[in-house]
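Data card: per-record layout.
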Amino acid sequence: DNIRSIRVESGAWVGFEHIDFQGQQFILERGEYPNWESYAGSLSYHSERFMSFRPIYCASHQSSRMMIYEKENFTGRCTELRDDYPSLEAMGWFRPEVGSMHV
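The structure for this 103-residue chain is written out next.
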């Protein structure tokens, strides 16, 4: 048996295509997912089923950080992220892309 549509009531979850948390992973946030296209989007790889799930436990933002760099291989201008940002521009990054990141 497998699951083909989902409603996430709260929190964030990872859905796996195989049992025992194996295979392709998809992040599911609050909302409805009536079919695989609603959670896979335009990915070239898709799974039309979920066989196992795991909740995502978020760490305190005070201990989380990520460095983003303008160019590949951690070079160029860099900025440290310690909070949620809705866009690159909102955090003062005025380029349309990030070259590399270190978590």
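Known properties of this structure: The radius of gyration is 17 Å. Residues 36-40 form the longest helix (5 residues).

See the next section for split statistics.
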